[in-house]
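Propose amino acids for all 290 sites.
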């Protein structure tokens, strides 16, 4: 990877994002429903982190020196499983068991079930606190591993998230990166109607974090933000957050337009259309992100 050009890097990560979306559609089809919109929306973030940032050993998911990726949002597990399969940590063939009895891939992420799932994050608002503890612990151990916490905009409603944010800055956790999926949606409706969290950028800055806000469906912008975050961590030793504005259902116009997007029911005949739309929209022109 060290010899690749910028456009090769972009192409590699974009291709991973496409496969993550494709896996998520196949997984959703098994149950006919699921958190498919979130997986499509967050696929670029997941691809950037899994195929470009994280240090891990696919054959040894508990390798001590691994970077930790903590999924706070247990319901995003479908996207995370797709990323774990893309990373070679779980077999692609296992994805079809998603949400079935006795599967290692339950609908909400469970650390005891799935290799590579560091925490059970379904009770929202706890991930960042766990990430802070892990980052502190790793630092005490002299480990060079980094901790990445994936949060949703709904989790910004939780006081515990902000306590953790304050603690991370207090402890100067330069080994911690938070990524927030700002898809403007929650279970009960649009984020700005449930609880107005804006101005989000200024809030994180006020909590002392190195804060960047990017189009979370623009792979080039995501990679640049990760590069900036790494440089910042090395130079200053404070936590970084990448606020990612994303679109639910991204890449599949049929689903981008859905009203009830938090938990999607998709008709049997629609899945093939979804895959066709994804493929049609993803034929990458040279140097373009999709
Ligand atoms: C502590 C807690 N409160 C409530 C819930 C119920 N719940 C599940 S998903 C969800 C929406 C949270 O917002 P977000 O993750 O932004 O939703 P999405 O973008 O996936 O629609 C809620 C309230 C929960 N899982 N945990
Ligand atoms: Mg949301």
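Proposal:
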């Amino acid at each position: 990877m060290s010899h690749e050009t910028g456009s090769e890097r972009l192409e590699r990560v974009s291709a991973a994002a496409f496969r993550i979306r494709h896996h998520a559609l196949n997984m959703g089809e098994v149950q006919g429903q699921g958190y498919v919109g979130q997986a499509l929306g967050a696929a670029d973030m997941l691809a950037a982190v899994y195929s470009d940032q994280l240090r891990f050993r696919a054959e040894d998911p508990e390798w001590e020196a691994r970077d930790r990726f903590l999924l706070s949002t247990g319901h995003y597990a479908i996207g995370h499983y797709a990323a774990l399969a893309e990373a070679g940590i779980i077999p692609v063939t296992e994805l079809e068991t998603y949400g079935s009895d006795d599967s290692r891939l339950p609908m909400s992420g469970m650390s005891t079930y799935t290799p590579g799932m560091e925490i059970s994050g379904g009770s929202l608002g706890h991930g960042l606190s766990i990430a802070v503890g892990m980052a502190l612990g790793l630092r005490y151990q002299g480990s060079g591993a980094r901790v990445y916490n994936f949060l949703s905009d709904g989790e910004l409603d939780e006081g515990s998230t902000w306590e953790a944010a304050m603690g991370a800055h207090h402890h100067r956790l330069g080994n911690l990166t938070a990524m927030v999926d700002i898809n403007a949606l929650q279970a009960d409706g649009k984020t700005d109607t449930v609880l107005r969290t804006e101005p989000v950028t200024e809030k994180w800055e006020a909590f002392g974090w190195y804060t960047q806000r990017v189009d979370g469906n623009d792979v080039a912008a995501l990679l640049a933000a990760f590069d900036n975050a790494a440089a910042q961590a090395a130079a200053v030793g404070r936590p970084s957050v990448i606020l990612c504005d994303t679109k639910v259902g991204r890449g599949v116009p049929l689903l981008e337009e859905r009203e009830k997007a938090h938990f999607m029911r998709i008709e049997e005949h629609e899945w093939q259309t979804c895959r066709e739309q994804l493929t049609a929209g993803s034929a990458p022109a040279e140097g373009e992100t999709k």
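The mean pLDDT is 95. Residues 6-31 form the longest helix (26 residues).
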